[in-house]
Design goal:
heterodimer; A: 116 residues; seven-stranded mixed β-sheet; 56% strand; B: 114 residues; mainly beta; four-stranded antiparallel β-sheet
Chain lengths: 116, 114
């Protein structure tokens, strides 16, 4: 069975500082990794994904994530946080299997709070 | 601007009543997901369709929940009878299928069963 762990329920950072939201995963097969963001009373919004190739993936709103196969991690980063980045962030994984593709499994989410 | 449309956005119902939630996936998408979000459990996959065929509904309580795709433009999730523990936000998402394809989420249906 595949799973995603987001070890921090909440991350606090000051505006202008770099931010990191952590994610580790467990799958059989080659992983496909995703980050989504959820603002209050809204659906999840896709930020970025890793499929193959360069381990550093760039996405929307200045976010990027680094795939580390040996550590089975896919941490979300941004060089300079904005107050408007405050939201709930989800890491998700699916996998390429011999039988096809697995479904998308989400972590429990990490609340990012950026203070002015 | 293509998006997944869910109706209703909010639903309050009494225990024992039937609830039907509807989803219009993005045109051309062949994969539809239903997820339930609660504070305690986070996002749980309830059902997964590809080309309108159910591929995985193992996360769905079979005795009261049912999911269908009558046609390519409509997916439904029904609860009968509803119970207070079903109170949650239900999300529909659609995608192009394949492990590397991202899913696009609707705004969700906030269900409250009293």
């Amino acid at each position: 069975a595949q799973s995603v762990a987001q070890p921090e329920d909440q991350v606090n950072v000051a505006e202008g500082n770099p931010l990191t939201v952590k994610c580790t995963y467990s799958v059989s097969g080659n992983p496909y990794l995703f980050w989504y963001v959820q603002y209050p009373n809204r659906g999840l919004q896709f930020l970025l994904k890793y499929i193959t190739g360069d381990n550093l993936v760039k996405g929307s709103y200045g976010f990027e994530a680094e795939f580390n196969k040996s550590q089975t991690s896919f941490h979300l980063k941004k060089p300079s946080a904005l107050v408007s980045d405050s939201a709930l962030y989800f890491c998700a994984v699916s996998a390429s299997l011999r039988s096809g593709y697995s479904t998308l499994t989400f972590g429990k989410g990490t609340m990012l709070l950026v203070s002015p | 601007d293509a998006r997944v449309t869910q109706t209703p956005r909010h639903k309050v119902t009494e225990m024992g009543q039937e609830v039907t939630m509807r989803c219009q996936p993005i045109l051309g998408h062949n994969t539809v997901f239903w997820y339930r979000q609660t504070m305690m459990q986070g996002l749980e996959l309830l059902a997964y369709f590809r080309n309108r065929a159910p591929l995985d509904d193992s996360g769905m309580p079979k005795d009261r929940f049912s999911a269908e795709m009558p046609d390519a433009t409509l997916a439904t999730l029904k609860i009968q009878p509803s119970e207070p523990r079903d109170s949650a936000v239900y999300f529909c998402a659609s995608g192009l299928g394949g492990g590397g394809a991202e899913a696009f989420f609707g705004q969700g249906t906030r269900l409250t069963v009293v």
